[in-house]
Amino acid sequence: MGIILAILIFSFIVFFHELGHFLLAKMNGVEVNEFAVGMGPAIYSREYKGTKYAVRIFPIGGFCAMGEDDEATESPNNFNNKSVWARISVIAAGPVFNFILAFIFSVILTAMVGYDKPVVSGVEEGYLAAEAGIQAGDTIVKMGGKRIHLFREVSVYNQFHQGEEVAVTYRRNGEEKTVTLTPKEDKELGYERLGISSSGYEKANLLTALQYGVYVERFWINTTLESLKMLVTGKVGIDQLSGPVGIVDVVDDSYKESRSYGFMAVLAQLLYIAILISANLGVMNLLPLPALDGGRLVFLFVEAVRRKRVPPEKEGYVHLVGIACLMILMVFVMFNDIRRVFF
User: Fold this and answer.
1) Contact between 21 and 91 (Cβ < 8 Å)
2) 23 versus 199: which is more confidently predicted?
3) What is the pLDDT of residue 279?
4) Of residues 202 and 291, more confidently modeled
5) Rounded to an integer, what distance in angstroms lies between the CA atom of residue 230 and that of residue 239?
6) What is the pTM of this model?
7) Domains of the chain by range and CATH?
8) CA distance 91 to 64
9) Which of 25, 97, 226, 261 has its CA 20 to 30 A from that of 284?
10) What is the DSSP string of 12-80?
11) Distance of alpha carbon 232 from its chain centroid, rounded?
12) How would you classify the pairing of strands 51-65 and 120-123?
């Protein structure tokens, strides 16, 4: 059951991404040859106003075919014949829709389980937080110059900056004070900690669900960017990347662990994972890499600046190389996932 849920979650997120491309294409009058749900042979299709709508046999994502690789067409509504800003909006819509979906899921999850304000519930003796004067009831407002809205941001910041001093700004009775803390190793847990604990989750109403839904999505976007930064700087190895197989394993484990607590617990876990995947997909697709939406946007912005399109054959070669590199990376990540999960 967990495997089925993983496939459905991932497929819906990819489908919503393609829906963004589709809707903006229609808004800009771009011809859409086909909009499909699923992959593989079509089990149902119908043509409406020049677009073929299809349901395909494998429920894995979907696609929006706009004929953007067809350079020979004379139709004024072909993707390539539209203005550069219309094309930019169509390409950018996919990642933007991933962020919209992550926000919707974040609001729903916050309404269900509440939100973790960055309020300190306790300070452990022997850690610099206690020596610096931080007390229970204090609110952490900044760490390392970054604004803090959720207590989980405190924990994740510490995980990403092990062994580093950090400037922590906290608020008490309306007054703010900044102290410099150095995490201390917890030999039992095997990593360095600041020695402060969370006050837990507070129940959300409609307004706080919307407000903290933004903060939750922002948290996952920043976490993704920080992870990429660590990957580029070598602090995280490429062997720690995870792909579809790893995602399926995480969803399956989460389902098995939460099902004994009832339907709402399972739903909360699935929403949590869906937010993570959707935010990640949005960020990754905006990276300025060939074959990704971000890579295509780079060429479009260059065209907007120089008012002349990059020769399609040259752009095609760049994206072809990008696709080849992406496929090699996907094979490596899948092999790594299989080795980690099954061996």
Assistant:
1) yes
2) 23
3) 94
4) 202
5) 13
6) 0.88
7) 2-31+66-112+276-342 (no CATH), 116-200 (2.30.42.10)
8) 11
9) 25
10) HHHHHHHHHHHHHHHHTT---SEEEEEEEEEEEEEEETTEEEEEEEEEEEEEEE--TT--S---TTSGG
11) 18
12) unpaired
